[in-house]
Design brief:
Layout lengths: L1 E9 L4 E10 L2 E11 L6 E5 L5 E6 L8 H15 L3 E10 L10 E2 L2 H9 L8 H14 L4 E6 L18 H5 L9 H5 L1
Parallel strand pairs: 1-6, 6-8
Antiparallel strand pairs: 1-2, 2-3, 3-4, 4-5, 7-8
Helix pairs in contact: 1-3
Length: about 190
């Protein structure tokens, strides 16, 4: 049995994923990557091998809509059916904001998801879907270990003064600050 880790980027109308296996203690090996696009009106799936060549595709009926739970269940089931002896044992999620509470990756539980939901007001275009993806995966595969990695983590390493705007303290205390984005890419 080969244990795999799936990395997920859940968006408003798409779900991107990559599956990895540990080749050595410090190196992950890409098994495949893919996505489900147009989840709200014309969902279609494609998976590609490590060289980027398509290995499979699937389309749902025209006009059908699928949610994140359906999409994630499809992806993990597809992985475990199509890759011999593969078992998904953990998931990592790209999440835009970790807020002031999370400066590094964190194991996901209900408390973490509740806090991340509270940050939606600061980043409504990505945060709700990132959190929805983690919740959906927990519902579809209870007990699966999940970790959230935050785009804002990289920027939490800046000096506090660099994270502040020249605004009244009550405004800063309400959460207005330089959060920074794309930190996962910067860190990489």
């Amino acid at each position: 049995m080969t244990n795999a880790i799936i990395v997920v980027n859940a968006g408003s109308t798409s779900l991107k994923f990559a599956a990895y296996t540990g080749e050595t203690a410090n190196k992950l090996g890409l098994i495949c990557r893919g996505q489900i696009d147009s989840m709200k009106d014309d969902p279609h799936f494609v998976a590609k091998n490590p060289d980027g060549k398509p290995v499979d595709a699937h389309e749902w009926d025209d006009g059908q809509s699928i949610d994140h739970k359906t999409a994630l269940h499809f992806v993990i089931t597809w992985l475990e059916r199509n890759i011999p002896d593969l078992k998904v044992v953990a998931a990592g999620h790209r999440v835009v904001l970790g807020g002031t509470r999370f400066k590094a990756p964190v194991l996901i539980d209900d408390d973490v998801l509740t806090y991340l939901d509270s940050l939606v007001v600061m980043e409504p275009s990505h945060q709700p879907y990132n959190v929805r993806g983690a919740r959906a995966l927990a519902e579809a595969f209870p007990g699966l270990t999940q970790v959230a990695c935050f785009d804002s983590s990289f920027h939490r390493t800046m000096p506090e003064v660099a994270q502040m705007y020249a605004l009244p303290k009550d405004v800063r205390d309400a959460g207005v600050r330089h959060w920074g984005y794309h930190g996962i890419s910067y860190d990489y």
